[in-house]
Design a protein that fits this description.
The structure holds two protein chains of two kinds. By secondary structure, chain A is mainly β. In chain A, 7% of the residues lie in helices and 33% in strands. Chain A has one domain: Sandwich (Immunoglobulin-like), CATH 2.60.40. Chain A has one helix at residues 37-47; strands spanning 53-55, 58-61, 72-78, 88-95, 102-107, 115-121, 127-135, 140-147. Chain B is of the alpha/beta class. Chain B is built from 20 helices and 24 strands. In chain B, the strands form six sheets. Chain B has a six-stranded mixed beta sheet with strand order 1-14-13-2-3-4. Chain B has a six-stranded mixed beta sheet with strand order 6-7-9-10-12-11, covered by helices on one side. A four-stranded mixed beta sheet of chain B has the order 18-22-16-19. The termini of chain B are far apart. Classes of the chains: A mainly beta, B alpha/beta. The interface between A and B is large, with 35 and 71 residues.
Chain lengths: 156, 565
């Protein structure tokens, strides 16, 4: 029998412990400050100079349930021509549930050929990841994708 | 003395679990005998016959298996099969209470009907049905296994899956996909796959580092002039529901768009018929069928549902063939112009007492069990009532495990995983080591004891509850609800995470669970390497407990009060 102490303070960590007939418990039974949909919205406002934002055009490919919240693969793509007078300038990813809302920004030029990017995210808990696409004509598009970060471990 | 087979012959209604439509049931003629011939009887159709099994969980010998009485559908699955149980299920499919169909497909009168109709399954019987169908339809058949076949018994655990690979080889399957297979670890899975004469298909598994395919996705077959593509889909949440450390380089997931790519490629390669051999679980496949275009048939697995008809979702036929070797599905397809022009389906119940044993398969079963036979047959005690696991919230065999953990580990609360596998025992039956392993034989069965606050316990239960009752099946992660000993609570499946569970009380004194207080919790099957392995295996704890008690007298506790509207 293994006996482990669980007194984790921060949800960012995965805690070594077990329960639920299972499981690495995703830590954090704490109420430490986190990004919220509101703080994410504030950041988006700042990033886009309070532009009017329409839904669509940007596609975020994330797993429904993260296998490992510490490294979650993400692909983002924007449907758009990439010509000198019409292209995707910037794509931002924003968190609604990490300790801070900032994740990353990708910058494109017409020379990029397409507005696709892939990276890995660290996600502290179940949350929406927001994608923002700023176009060369000043229009801005957005979409949200939910990722679940779970204790898991009750394997069917 | 009348033996059971004669008794069944003499007294029971026919077993026309035929389908596609419900007329198969309604046309069942009372007074006919249950015979192997009657079980196999089928109105052959078209060029292709798919034979489907899955979720066998290493049950090589005949077993009893009580279907769930509680199987709640949420979201779009509310009130749809397989989320109809008991009397409502019988009514929905026009099945007479007390009939062989009622015994095979529902939980109604389980203990009593088990004594009338006997055990079900046994892979030597399954082999007899498979070979008979093949003999009737030479060059028409594919035998497809949707996985969870190599785990669930002591012999499988000791041979790390090899016994089942040998037993199934006698039936010459055409493909398999996987889930619990992965819990033997990546290296062992590859070794076992090397032993197969057929492909292990898992198009949704990619390497973590480079996101490259790990297994074959698709296999093309030709039967009777029809090109058939079988695409494999392993259990998408294997690394979440089971120990990820056992296959650290592999990433799973539903991956709709990747499934679509495999289907498109199969069509481009000339497939007339596209079959998804799936371990997604029924509700996930029901949703996937609306999102991925061009799949003709999904052979479902994982959620262990036995549905006596095919379910048509936007032109895709879903087949659910139960578990533990209890059923064999036959689906005949008439393909015209790369479309299903007609079909016939039958969920064949494997009544062990009336189906002949296939000699080749029986021999391999005997050989693989031989080293463990005397240990497996050791009697530990007797159960007064039915012991079963299946059901969303609780099962009496899990209550037995939870009680053993509390008593033997001196804990206040116990937790046991909500696995769907594990057969049932009937009132008066002896409990053997074999039965004990059928509920516990995993590669991470160590017992742990931990201190949790009330708040942590609540968060665990809410998290697992959301993995079961999230209205979007793509967010449902694994098995049934974690089993809890020492604690009672109200569960409202319709609420959202954090709000489903209320009125948590300790059963020993009726006191409210104090969110700030620390409780000792015993459990097993942690997906964490240090906690889940290397310690005392749970079967030792439960064995000691049963031997001490001698007679197990458990009825459903009512400790979990379910409100599901």
């Amino acid at each position: 029998m293994t006996k482990l102490k669980v007194d984790v303070l921060d949800r960012r960590q995965f805690v070594i412990a077990s329960g639920a007939g299972a499981a690495a418990i995703i830590a954090g039974f704490s109420s430490a400050a986190h990004a919220t949909p509101e703080t994410a919205a504030e950041l988006i406002k700042k990033l886009t100079n309070s532009a009017k934002i329409a839904e669509g055009k940007i596609k975020i490919d994330l797993p429904e349930i993260a296998e490992n919240g510490n490294t979650v693969p993400v692909k983002v793509s924007v449907e758009s021509p990439m010509t000198a007078d019409n292209y995707v300038k910037t794509v931002h990813l924003v968190s609604e549930g990490n300790p801070g809302p900032e994740i990353c920004s990708f910058h494109f030029t017409p020379m990029s050929g397409n507005a696709n990017a892939a990276t890995r995210l660290r996600l502290a808990r179940t949350q929406n990841v927001v994608g923002i696409a700023e176009m060369s004509d000043g229009t801005v598009y957005m979409s949200k994708t939910q990722v679940k970060v779970t204790i898991g471990g009750c394997g069917g | 003395m009348i033996d059971r087979r004669d008794f069944i012959h003499a007294s029971l209604a026919t077993l026309a679990l035929s389908g596609g439509t419900l007329s198969g049931y309604r046309s069942a003629i009372a007074g006919q005998k249950i015979t192997q011939e009657e079980i196999l009887k089928f109105d052959a159709k078209g060029q292709v016959t798919l034979i489907h099994v899955g979720d066998i969980h290493s049950q090589a010998k005949p077993i009893y298996f009580r279907e769930p009485s509680v199987n709640i559908g949420v979201g779009d699955a509310l009130g749809l099969p397989p989320h109809i149980t008991g009397k409502a299920m019988l009514k929905k499919f026009g099945i007479k209470a007390g009939s062989p169909e009622a015994y095979a497909l529902s939980s109604e009168d389980f203990g009593q009907l088990a004594k009338t109709y006997g055990k079900m399954g046994g892979l030597d019987r399954v082999a007899t049905l498979v070979k008979a169908i093949r003999a009737e339809r030479p060059n028409h058949c594919l035998l497809l296994d949707s996985g969870d076949t190599w785990q669930g018994s002591w012999a499988s655990l000791q041979t790390r899956g090899e016994d089942m690979v040998k037993i199934m080889a006698t039936m010459k399957p055409d493909a398999i996909t996987g889930h619990w297979e992965f819990t033997y670890g990546a290296e062992r899975v590859k070794e076992l796959i090397d032993m197969l004469d057929f492909p292990f298909l898992a198009g949704n598994v990619i390497s973590n580092e480079w996101e490259e395919p790990v297994f074959e996705a698709t296999k093309m077959y030709e039967r009777n002039g029809v090109k058939i593509a079988v695409v494999g889909q392993a259990f998408p949440y294997t690394p979440v529901a089971n120990p990820r450390w056992m296959f650290p380089d592999w990433s799973f997931g539903i991956r709709d768009s990747l499934v679509q790519e495999h289907v498109n490629k199969a069509r481009a390669d000339g497939a007339d018929l596209v079959v998804l051999l799936s371990h997604n679980g029924f509700d996930v496949d029901r949703k996937l069928a609306t999102k991925v275009k061009g799949i003709d048939v999904i052979l479902t697995g994982h959620t262990h549902d036995a549905i006596p008809v095919t379910i048509n979702v936007g032109g895709t036929l879903l087949v659910a063939s139960g578990c533990s070797g209890k059923f064999v599905s036959r689906l005949d397809l008439d393909i015209k112009g790369k479309k299903i022009a007609g079909f016939n389906y039958k969920l064949m119940p494997v009544f062990s007492d009336v189906i002949e044993k296939d000699a080749d398969t029986a021999k391999v079963i005997a050989e693989t069990r031989a080293p463990y036979e005397s240990h497996l047959n050791e009697v530990l005690g007797t159960t007064k009532n039915s012991l079963y696991r299946r059901g969303n919230m609780s099962g009496t065999f899990d209550d037995l495990i939870c009680n053993a953990l509390i008593e033997k580990k001196d804990a206040e609360i116990s937790l046991s995983p909500g696995f769907r596998w594990g057969p049932s025992l009937i009132p008066g039956q002896e409990i053997t080591n074999d039965d004990l392993y059928s509920q516990t034989a995993t590669t991470y069965a160590s017992v742990y004891k931990l201190d949790f606050t009330g708040k942590q316990i609540k968060e665990i239960l809410e998290d697992v509850g959301d993995n079961l009752f999230n209205p979007d099946p793509y967010f449902q992660q694994g098995g049934d609800m974690v089993r809890v000993g020492g604690l009672s609570f109200d569960m409202d499946a319709r609420k959202t995470i954090g709000k489903r569970i209320t009125n948590m009380r300790l059963t020993r004194n009726g006191k409210d669970l104090d969110m700030g207080k620390t409780y000792s919790v015993a459990g097993w099957s942690s997906v964490n390497k240090e906690t889940g392995t290397g310690g005392q295996p749970v079967w030792d704890v439960v064995r000691d407990y049963i031997k001490e008690k001698k007679v197990i007298d458990l009825k459903p506790t009512g400790d979990i009060r379910l409100s599901n509207g």
